[in-house]
Amino acid sequence: MLKAWTLIVGLCLINPALALASAQVPTRTQGLIDKPAPDFTLDTVYNGMKTLSEARAGKKAILFFWATWCPHCHTALTSLNNSVEALKHDGVSIILVDMGESRNDVKAYLEFNTFNLDSFLDPNASLQEDYALIGVPTLYFVDEQGIIRSEKHDFPGNFEKFFRSSQKD
């Protein structure tokens, strides 16, 4: 009799656990997809205070959160820097946001690596919550209307598909 009760109680405890384990858990960024990119105003390395809207100027944009110490960011920045002209030709703005570092460090890094890109500076990582950042690199693909269409953690070869609505990895 004790074995039967143990089995019944065990099944009651396991079933809810199995149901919870099989439920799809949304990622933090799913709440941003197909929503307006949160606007912000930050200082930049070379061009003073700007808003995201000003930097985007009604164009599609790759919004790239990065840091100088991040090797994967360096790889993505190299790809972005090498693609600047092609992206501009396709009407895409590149918008960098350095997380947690000083202007001097970011400027020295950009110049040392001959990256012809400006970057917003977020020395206090104040955008971390608004953009649900869990780390760098993080790229958001924002369409002409300012809507976030997708999010990646590496620079894709064919970026255009990530500007379409509701793209998943």
Instruction: Please provide the ordered H/E string of secondary-structure elements.
Output: HEEHEHHEHEEE
* SSE-based structural type: alpha/beta
The number of distinct helices, counting runs of at least 4 residues, comes to 5
Q: What overall form do the CA principal axes indicate?
A: globular
Helix content: 25-40%
Q: What's the overall average pLDDT, rounded? A: 82
**Corresponding CATH superfamily:** Glutaredoxin
Topology:
Blueprint (H helix, E strand, L loop, with lengths): L1 H21 L18 E3 L5 E3 H5 L3 E7 L4 H12 L1 H6 L2 E8 L3 H10 L6 E4 L15 E5 L5 E5 L17
Parallel strand pairs: 3-4, 4-5
Antiparallel strand pairs: 1-2, 3-6, 6-7
Description:
The chain has 5 helices and 7 strands; from the N terminus they run H-E-E-H-E-H-H-E-H-E-E-E. The chain is 32% helix and 21% strand. The chain has a single domain (26-163), classed as Glutaredoxin (3-Layer(aba) Sandwich). By secondary structure, it is of the alpha/beta class. The protein has helices spanning 2-22, 52-56, 71-82, 84-89, 103-112; strands at 41-43, 49-51, 60-66, 92-99, 119-122, 138-142, 148-152. The strands form 2 sheets. It has a 5-stranded mixed sheet with strand order 5-4-3-6-7. A hairpin with a 5-residue loop joins strand 6 (138-142) and strand 7. The radius of gyration is 21 Å and the shape is globular.
